[in-house]
Records
---
Amino acid sequence: MSQEVLKVLYRLQHTGHLGYLCGGGVRDLLLGREIDDYDVATDAEPKRLKEVFGNCRLVGRRFRIAHIMFKGGKIIEVSTFRKQGEEESSEEDDSNSLLIRRDNTFGSPEDDAFRRDFTINALYYNVADFSIIDYVGGREDLQSRLIRAIGDPDIRFQEDPIRILRGIRLAATLDFKVEEATWEAMKRQRHRILECAVSRIREEVMKILRRESCHSGFDLLVRAGILEVVFPKLEEFRLAHIESNTTGEGPISHHLAVLEDLRAQGAKLSDSVLLATLTAAPVRELLKTLPSDHDVGKSLHEYLETNFKPLAFPRIVRSKVHLLHLALRYMLAQQRRKRRRSLRRSPIFADALRLLEIHCLATNQHWSALRRWQSPPVNGPRRRRKAKGRHQ
Ligand code: ATP
Ligand code: MG
């Protein structure tokens, strides 16, 4: 465990408080995985945390969380044990909605465990006696490699449908199975994902794509019927291109499988490359079927906007994905050397080359184009400029 988190836990203990490591930190610690971020839960209320820690900043409007800041920019997040929020009814609310809009009442450690999403995310580690505290059967599920919602999964997903995407990400990342009732509820409640703020949906989808396990994450999104909800156009293309002789794989998943391999080799991939890879197969098909006199840029723009605008991907990312697709099209065609140089000098060249590599690996085609673009530019003999006045 990091020195910083230990300092926080011991300081809480020495000032008379409970201080537990919680959430993903405990789960990953028990699985022997590298820990991305540490979360601490305590019975100390935010204003008390300000007194206990000099290096503390309170953040969050609805629920105050303490950020304990350390040298080098490391931050440990400390939150006070809280209860499951009650739903707030308002005039325009649909009376069936269980969506939680308030989540800010303090509670006991047990309340805090029951408001969490999955059993394996609700374990606590107490440094005072080195024990694991488990109110929800999380240890057993960790051992059986199961993602199980805490309580009634239908209700929990209705309260916060983003949990469905979190569950998919967790199952893919850890290579765990989703427990039967949780899985069925994910499928039943999947359309509610659109009730969440688009920024949350977009971030969760990107987290799935950014992981090494993005291929299995995609597969789970498909099997749970969620691709249809978050990217309906992609689902339409996928359904039309399923390879009936295999396990239902198709061109989109072939592209994502390549991402997994590249990641395993340590490749860093930008979000634009990820989104261009996700749309590479349908875009290639779209461009192939366009009549020759058609405005390629416009059709491409329209196709990408139908995919990425509903989740409000930033304009800069959408434009870059657009450019990457144009660059891929250009690289796959035979090009004159002079024009080749200008693409090489462009800021998107590294990402465009990566996309070309992914596309070649996914389709097992276009290798000569890849070799041509990967090899350093040949500065062939420049034509001598015609002497001025030669033809005069
Ligand atoms: P990782 O950080 O590896 O992505 P994590 O499980 O730590 O995974 P965080 O987003 O850091 O995820 O959340 C910390 C903890 O807060 C979770 O483990 C879970 O217990 C709880 N949590 C997060 N989001 C929700 C949610 N939407 N509903 C209920 N509990 C949640
Ligand atoms: Mg975390």
---
Amino acid sequence: MGNPIEYLKGVGPLRAELLKKELGIFTFRDLLEHFPYRHVDRTKINLVREIRPDTEFIQVAGRITSVNVLGEQRSRRLVAELRDATGVLELVWFQGVNGVQKLVQVGGEFLVYGRVGFFQGSPQLTHPEIEAFQGQVADRPEYLEPVYPTTEKLKIRGLGGRQLGKLTQVLLNMLKERDLPENLPEAVMAYPDPDTGLPQRWVSRYEAYRQVHFPQDPMVYKAAVRRLKFEELFVAQVRLGLIKSRRHRSSHGVVFAQVGDMFNGFYTKHLPFELTGAQKRVLREIRKDTGSGRQMNRLLQGDVGSGKTIVALLAMLLAVDNGFQACLMAPTEILARQHYEGISALLKELPLEVRLLTGSSRSKSRKEALRLAQEGSLHILIGTHAVLEDPVQFQRLGLVIVDEQHRFGVAQRARLWKKAEIPPHVLVMTATPIPRTLAMTAYGDLDYSVMDELPPGRQPISTFHRFEERRSQVMDFLKHEIGKGRQAYIIFPLIEESEKMDYENLEKGYINVKAWFPEPKYWISRVDGRQKAAERDTNMRRFVNGDTQIMVATTVIEVGVNVPNATVMVVESAEKFGLSQLHQLRGRVGRGAEKSFCILLTSHRLGREARERMGILTETDNGFKIAEKDLEIRGPGDIEGTRQSGLLNFKIANIVQDREWLELARERAAELLEKDPELVTAENRELKAFLQAQQGRTAWSKIS
Ligand code: ADP
Ligand code: MG
């Protein structure tokens, strides 16, 4: 199976080179895993008359009645007419014109196959598959013919969809059952039929590969695809399960054995509210992890406003109670300061040393924080990435919390390990919910907690979608809210690709807002990435303190900022933002007792996807639902932070469409590992061998 593709009969070095370059097919296995995307019944010849506006693919036999080369250079194309007994079909080639010209001549009889398009009302095929044809569909096999993804380059060099099928056929004829041994353990072979619920048995692996390429009929094909999808998901889940349990067994962590005075004192006397059920559950999970003797490595997902800060604070108090120091890291200066101020206020009655350290800390306070940390008299350090820098040394660092960042990288973790003999526990918190299916795959080897409950008494945020033409009404609404003493955000997009224009729009927008809201009645804070940190900070702070009523900003404020008095969020050119980004922005309001609003302004001309996004946001404010939709619309490849994750490179499974198989695979993998954690029993031998071989291959191709 690992044989180089050039050794397959009919390939040879030249075609092998092309297959590698164009399709990444290096070995026999790669060819076998190059799955057809559809099958066609090529035993049937259609008539031109049968073509309907919704006809997708068609196969027609006929005689060429004209051939013309039209246009110059890039628009140069060959147009031929093919006539059968019922009508005329136009054939068009833009590439390989010279080669086609030799083949396709007036009077010749051909069989053509391709996707139907319409040009000025008449049907045409662009770059059809074409072969000389004498009256009969001769050596047609009985099966449905597979259609493979291919490229224009390959088509021209005789490696179009059909030829790929022929090669695959050659390969399948060579393979014996033992070349594709069953890798699913007997205990996993049975599954409940999704329609009837009755027990079914997976088709064997050998059979599945044959049928997925050349199925006898559509039912058999479906069963084969299902089997291969399940296998792929199951194997991935077993692999993740193994990584996770090995990490659990081998890692050492400091032990937080007890809950002491700080935690208890704060909990009983200073906690400003009753914790939600989700917050309590997560705290229990953290307690269990940190008391276990192994290192905690936990991802906490909580929707915007679900109250992650207080969980972080209580976890830090747990560390302090056990004689350890704790550190809270935020992605921005603004957020770090906000955490520092909030947490210091909450802890003011307790005998605790809390300090702030950021890139702009003055040297005196910096020095002091460093000294206290090293001596061990500092209990809690709050800061930006500055806390990762080398001069920051702790006496007994026991817990690190990373806020609003689920992509806390390996390199950054490594820097933490240098700060303590035994690596501290790590809790990464993110407000970008990750759909369950994605979490199960991309983060399946991490421990994760979910806070899917908002504190009680929150008023839902009303979200509206408005076209730009109605901006003046929106501004009037803002005036009304500000008149009641509230504050508002107006956010402009800033995208790297169109940065210059975006800044111009921001500038115009700012001037515009100023015209609507003139001083001295109104004051505006402007915050964007081009400002110096100090200027940005001052503007930010004026808004936080209530000295300005409006903040005009780019997405620098996206994450974490907490101004409970702000009740209106206006997003300009909302169509330029992704779903989760809009959800984050919206999360900046609705933080106080007053009713809040989010207004999405877009241009009149909206694409289908953008329209869909606006619809989803106006319908729900549940971040997990939104994340699921985002995944559905964009597909797993595009979700932030998962791109590099080799774990999502599924060949046939799709975590959005196949979520029911993913759930089943996960369940079965867990059962299996529970009984046989290291896969040593005879029943799991093939599976283990398969995993090892796969591991070897991925290590070789450097996918981690
Ligand atoms: P996020 O999860 O987005 O970081 P925060 O920790 O900033 O959320 O909390 C949002 C707001 O909710 C804060 O004002 C916080 O004081 C408040 N809050 C957190 N937990 C509760 C609770 N259990 N009951 C009431 N209010 C809470
Ligand atoms: Mg937060």
